[in-house]
Amino acid sequence: MRVEFRFCPACGSRLEPREVEGRALPTCPSCEFVAWPDPKVAVAVVAHDRRGRLLLIRRGTPPAKGEWALPGGYVDATESPSVAARRECLEETRLDLRVEGLTGVHHVLVEGGGLLVLAYAGELLGDRPEPTAEAPEFGFFDPGSIPELGFSAHREAVAAWRAGRA
């Protein structure tokens, strides 16, 4: 969900549309603040166990509630994306992760704007995930038998991970 600025967060003046770099954007007439339509940033984790199986979650919350997905979520402003990947895996599965590296950056258009999904690969530091509200069900899958994933960026992330291992 995109927040539409009506007032300047810096000085409180009412924003007015103004052409900036070829497009009309909400701009402050007092202090020149521009409400750029920045994307949100999220992470997705291609988490595997020592046997090479991927851990998928069945989402317990919208969007894509009830569908298979990679663990993941939004990056907080105060954390690095790799730390967010580890945190999201831990929050959703109760399993810690050794982050191996970035496997890709995926852009997705969602209602209200854009989303950058940074996909990380990592090895799970345990083998007994626990259900959570965000992920009430989970499963380990061989890379060749992944069920349909609810998000295009997750499908792309798994494909990139597979290609990197080939």
Give a brief outline of the structure:
The protein is α+β, with helices and mostly antiparallel strands and about 170 residues long.
Provide an overview of this structure.
The chain is α+β, with helices and mostly antiparallel strands. It folds into two domains: 1-37, N-terminal domain of TfIIb (Single Sheet), CATH 2.20.25; 40-165, Nucleoside Triphosphate Pyrophosphohydrolase (Alpha-Beta Complex), CATH 3.90.79.10. Helix content is 16%, strand content 36%. It has two helices and nine strands, in the order E-E-E-E-E-E-H-E-E-E-H. The strands form three sheets. It has a four-stranded mixed sheet, with helices on both faces. Strands 5-4-9 form a three-stranded antiparallel sheet, with no helix packed on it. The longest helix is centred in the C-terminal third of the chain and has 14 residues, at 152-165. The radius of gyration is 19 Å and the shape is elongated. The two termini are 38 Å apart. The mean pLDDT is 94.
